[in-house]
Amino acid sequence: MITVKSLNKYFGDLHVLKDINMEVDRGEVVVVIGPSGSGKTTLLRTLNILETPEEGEITIGSRFMNFARPIQKKQIVEFRKQTGMVFQNHNLFPHLTALENVMEGPVTVQKVAKSKAKKRASDILTKVGLGEKLNVYPHQLSGGQQQRVGIARALATGVEVILFDEPTSALDPELVGDVLDVMKELAEEGMTMVVVTHEMSFAEEVADRVLFMDQGEIVEEGSPEQIFHNTQRQRTQQFLKRIR
Ligand code: ADP
């Protein structure tokens, strides 16, 4: 579903992504862990071309990008349509209700008829446990509920891949569980997911594969069992020791 080859990204002199290669199968859940500043968010944003790398190739689904060549805006727009992104701070429109927030992408980007988009948005919000909150505004929702609207938004356009950037790290601890439960359900339904998170128990339970990043490199990847319990790499061991 996703193939990344020799991806390199710089911010000025800072080499943030160093020759990243990765593959994600259809239906796979890949969790990216690593110290702050190691490039996790930049990697995720690059997959959605919110950041443009200097070198490398990304294939998602049927679309391919080679960043060594000039890229047209239209290509980026098309490429982005394949992935949904859920951010740390949900980025909802404050003046739109939960329902309107979820309808917005299908109606304005995909030109879906309003009545159809409304029905679908309502179904998706019900699925994420917000069937009672269709007509309320973001400020009337808890952080966890807002984040679930964010996930519903990502789902509404029918994407096959969802990229999660620390979806629970801005939430009060008691709100984290509901959001992780929705993510678990999506994983069980076969959604392809790349998740940057500090929730190691989620990674252990839900990830098919864990990538450990440090200083812009994928240092190690493997099953949760291998990374959390059997790593032979010193950098991975040191990171896990610090967070445990
Ligand atoms: P992580 O998600 O692992 O914490 P990031 O991808 O956010 O790491 O950041 C990787 C490095 O790139 C950090 O050193 C960070 O300061 C730097 N960085 C991130 N975004 C920018 C930017 N827009 N401009 C300059 N430097 C950036």
UniProtKB/TrEMBL annotation:
Keywords: ATP-binding, Cell membrane, Membrane, Nucleotide-binding, Transport. The lineage of its organism: Bacteria, Bacillati, Bacillota, Bacilli, Bacillales. Its main location: membrane. GO terms for cellular component: plasma membrane. InterPro entries: AAA+_ATPase, ABC_ATPase_HisP-typ, ABC_transporter-like_ATP-bd, ABC_transporter-like_CS, MetN_ABC_transporter-like, P-loop_NTPase. The keyword ATP-binding applies. One of its GO terms (molecular function) is ABC-type amino acid transporter activity. It comes from Halobacillus litoralis. SMART domains: AAA (SM00382). Residues 2-240 form the ABC transporter domain. It is a peripheral membrane protein. It is found in: Cell membrane. This is Ectoine/hydroxyectoine ABC transporter ATP-binding protein EhuA.
